[in-house]
Design the sequence.
């Protein structure tokens, strides 16, 4: 006959039932899905809002310029020409990709900021009318 599993300390026959009762996964999931900036009302500086896309644009521009220099070296220096012709376009494409991603990211953040301001305004109106 099969014996039901015991908990590590041997005190319970059904450890799953205890786990289901005391589990707080619902609150953990709910807490982890909330963004801090949505639930806090402190205003953030422009740098705090745009620092990630600015860094991506800067790295992309630097990588693109580095790829341009490497590619131009293949025309100027005849030695190691194959290495320059292989690495140059790779850096060019990587830099261009980062540059475009960062430049597209900025309007997305602006749109989210406008939506957040609208939702905060609507929340304040709702609380004004319904809390009277």
Sequence:
């Amino acid at each position: 006959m099969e014996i039901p599993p015991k908990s590590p300390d041997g005190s319970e026959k059904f450890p799953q039932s205890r786990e289901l009762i005391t589990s707080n996964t619902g609150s953990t999931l709910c807490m982890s899905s909330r963004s801090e900036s949505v639930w806090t009302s402190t205003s953030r500086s422009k740098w705090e809002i745009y620092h990630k896309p600015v860094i991506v644009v800067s790295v992309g521009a630097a990588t693109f310029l580095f790829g341009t220099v490497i590619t131009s070296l293949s025309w100027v220096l005849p030695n190691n020409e194959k290495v320059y012709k292989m690495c140059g376009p790779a850096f060019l494409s990587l830099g261009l990709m980062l540059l475009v991603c960062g430049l597209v990211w900025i309007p997305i953040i602006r749109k989210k900021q406008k939506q957040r301001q609208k939702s905060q305004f609507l929340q304040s109106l709702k609380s004004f009318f319904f809390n009277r």
Observations:
- The longest helix spans residues 81-130.
- The chain has five helices and no strands.
